[in-house]
Amino acid sequence: MAYEPPKHCSTCGAPLSEVAGAPGQRRCSSESCRRITYLSPIPVVAAIVEHEDDVVLVRGHGWPEGWFGLVTGFLEPKESPEEAARREVKEELGLDVGESALIGAYAFAQMNQVIIAYHMKAAGEIKLDSAELAGFKRVPIDKLRPWNFGTGAAVKDFLERRNLNPPPQAGKG
Ligand SMILES: [Zn+2]
Q1: Number of helices (H) and strands (E), helices first, in the chain?
Q2: Cα-atom radius of gyration of the chain, to the nearest Å?
């Protein structure tokens, strides 16, 4: 399901052609249209959801067996990325986000997306949106391991920073 650049003009339907010197553009081949289509990546928000000392990973319908990932979603008009990520956590898991922190922004070339990732501390009782998701699992933060594509880069940075700056352990030590 990797990204494929569009092949036809969205205005008139004529085939698109490559543009010399501009790999991020396609030009309509119709002489009367010539509209430029931009192949700009689309922003996607992602959340590492921390809930009761675990991270909650989710699984989409039709994903290969055993695959779980971060809560992700697209922005709605006028939303900030952070607002979009909060909304997705609420919609997909039914949880309310308190503190949140930006982890970073990552190119996901295979999907022509830019992933804007947050660490979000969430509270409440998990109510999975089963229309959108097939399941979830809780992973203790110490057991979380990054995967080598997509949102995995954000998980890697999150864990590296956490190891450099461990959170204070209330009531221990
Ligand atoms: Zn056209």
Answers
A1: 2, 9
A2: 20
Cα separation of the two ends of the chain: 48
pLDDT at 170: 57
For 71-90, what is each residue's pLDDT tens digit?
999 999 999 999 999 999 99
Tell me the helix, strand and coil percentages in the chain, rounded to 5: 20, 40, 45
Mean pLDDT of 20-41: 96
Residues 126, 95 contacting (CB under 8 angstroms): yes
- Ligand 1 centre to CA of 22 (Å) is 18
10 Å Cβ neighbour count for 94?
14
Report the separation in Å between the CA atom of 32 and the middle of ligand 1, taken as the mean of its atom positions: 8
CA gap 55, 45 in Å, rounded: 17
Per-residue pLDDT at 167: 78
DSSP code at position 149 = S
Tokens (6 digits) for 140 = 């203790």
**What is the distance in A from the centroid of ligand 1 to the CA of 3?**
21
Find out whether 69 and 92 touch, Cβ atoms under 8 Å. Answer: no
